Amino acid sequence: MQIYLPIAELSLNIFLLLGMGGLVGFLSCMFGVGGGFLMTPLLLFAGVPPAVAVASGANEITAASISGAQAHWRRGGVDVKMGLVLTAGGLVGSYAGAWIFKVLRETGQLELLISVAFVIFLCSMGLLMLIESGRTMWRRYKGMPPLPRRRSRTWADSLPHKIRFRKSRQYISVYLPLVIGGLVGMLVAIMGVGGGFIIVPAMIYLLNMPTNVVIGTSLFQITMVTAAVTIFHSINTQSVDVVLALILLIGAVIGAQIGVRIGYRLRGEQLRALLGLIVFGVGLRMAYGLFVMPDELFSITTVIG
Amino acid sequence: MLRNIFAAIIAALTLSATSARAETQGLVTDISSHQIAISSNFRGTSLLLFGAIDWSRVPIPATEKKRGVASWRDRPFDVIMVVTGPKQTYRIRKKSEVGGIWLNTGSAEIRDLPSFYALAATRDPQDILLPEVLEKTPLGLDSMVFDWSEQPPADEAADYRQAIFRDRILSGVYSERPTSLQVLDDTLFRAEIYFPANVPVGRYRAEIYLVRNGTIISQQSAPLSVDKIGLERAIHVFANTRPATYGVLCVILAVSAGLIAGALSRRFSS
User: Fold this and answer.
1) Distance between CA atoms of B202 and A106, rounded to whole angstroms?
2) Alpha carbon B132 to chain centroid, angstroms
3) Measuring CA to CA, which of A42, A119, B132, B260 is 20 to 30 A from B188?
4) Which burial class, exposed, middle or buried, applies to A235 when counting CB atoms under 10 A from its CB (0-12, 13-18, 19+)?
5) Is some CB atom of chain A closer than 8 A to the CB atom of B197?
């Protein structure tokens, strides 16, 4: 069954869209990532124009992550204070990111920046998570005591304006989550992703937060930032396709509810290993695209105005 | 089926003869519909372009008249139909390898390129029109004139040109079917033009040319509009006229849909 998307200006199969939404929603709730790093490429592959894919994707991720954030909230898995600080940084970062986006689009190197950013972040994050979770699993298998999860004291601890995040069991400088949120927000605007695949590892390895609040808090922050990005994109480029977003989110909320249940059954390190594998795989795929000669050397875009 | 279509054509012809529907120099043409309405189940559509040649009114050049030619009927002739969409500016980029990585290095921009171009004819315009005629009235992709607002590298202009056609043809908005136009009894002609689901919206023009001896002896055009209707139109207009409100509504919609779905799934699972 085909459905016409009024902003994307094309017809797509409704079941294809539902399936894509479902897959992304499943990952979203299982790992606390927005799934945007998968959604954007999938939509592009289906023929949706890039601007519409990014903007409508953001709108859909809002819906998918709020249903997940709520599910985690009920289990007490959201550190609201931490989430708000991350969001504050995220809003500033996404504004800056949107400006970089505009400049690069005019010079034609946006595509390259997006690919390189994806490759660097996905590959390094994925590899890091795989190594760490593999080591934990190995130690558990051997019956060794788990590695102490205390972060060693670094320059970050000497930063001023410390705040207590009770739920995350942290007493850290407010600038640490603020800067992380800001960097992620920048990537949200440039790459059209929720940023969960960066913020989840950042919370685990940099902020040293307990795994059970990481996913809920990440979803909380993603909901806020993608909502802002949706409004931002609809003002700037009028590229939010509400019909597309609605179909995707119907699939996504179904997938999300399945994901959150399976996620709680798996151990932390298994979850991290799985996410690491997916993230690394997508990164490799993007690197392949950079180094292999494309089938079509030319790309054509319409110029507005 | 065919008979019905021709019956419809005749009916339309008598209608258009009385109406203000244009008729220039012996060509009478019309389209099965002057509007394409895009609604939620739009999957592309075909329109029938049809017409008739009134040979008694086709102007005969003075040179031929002198030789006592009273009518041009029974002489070989051709018909070309072209449907063009609203003009757009396009940017084209070319990738090349730099240190092992493929990145955009070349770029060009074309002004006023039709966003839709469909040609139907009895024969390829290149074969039936004189070069000087094609130069004045470009017909067919091969003779389409590009107005570069930013020139491509001189030695690669042809590659850029072909790349644009390749891309447009692949997405279905450019098509050339030089033998798809049918002529019946040297008078009636018809061709079907397909508009894919991604057809750009806006004002279109259908041009019909009557060709003999390598020149265009008569020409006729008809307007056509492609528009969104109903909810699709409402959404499109809303998103473009009140973008901030639209964005906020999208977020509210997403948040409530997410929460409702969450509540539903809890109810069913517990």
Assistant:
1) 26
2) 24
3) B132
4) middle
5) yes
Q: Does the pLDDT of residue A31 top 60, yes or no?
A: yes
Closest Cα to residue B162, out of B201, B108, B104, B121?
A: B108
CA dihedral A281, A284, A288, A289 (to 10 degrees): 80
DSSP structure string for chain B: -HHHHHHHHHHHHHHHHHSS--EETTEEEEES-SEEEE-TT---EEEEEEEEE-TTTS---HHHHHTT----TTS--EEEEEEE--EEEEEEEEEEEETTEEEEEEEEEEEEEES-EEEEESS-HHHHS-HHHHHHS--SGGGPPPEEEEPPPGGGHHHHHHHHHHHHHHTTSEEEETT--EEETTTEEEEEEEE-TTPPPEEEEEEEEEEETTEEEEEEEEEEEEEE-HHHHHHHHHHHHSHHHHHHHHHHHHHHHHHHHHHHHHHHH-
Strands B35-38 and B215-228 turn out to be: parallel
- Min mean pLDDT across A97-111, A180-194, B59-73, B163-177 is at B59-73
Q: Contact at 8 Å (CB) between B28 and B16?
A: yes
The answer to whether the Cβ–Cβ distance between A230 and B197 falls below 8 Å is: no
* 89-108 in chain A: CB under 8 A from chain B: 108
pLDDT in tens, A285-301: 778 878 888 888 888 87
Paired strand residues for B94: A298, B106
How close, in Å, is residue A74 to chain B by CA atoms? 11
Residue B176 pLDDT level (bands cut at 50, 70, 90): very high
- The rounded distance, in Å, linking the Cα atoms of B212 and A95 is 62
Per-residue pLDDT of B48-92, as tens digits, reads 999 998 888 877 777 777 777 666 666 788 999 999 999 999 989
Length of chain A counted residue by residue: 305
B237 in reach of chain A (CB within 8 A): no
pTM: 0.72
CB contact under 8 A, A298 and B164: yes
The candidate with the shortest Cα–Cα distance to B52, out of B25, B83, B74, B34, is B25
Q: Which residues contact A48 (CB under 8 A, 6 or more apart)?
A: A5, A8, A10, A12, A56, A241, A244
8 A C-beta contact, residue B57 and residue B250: no
Is residue A6 helix, strand or coil? coil
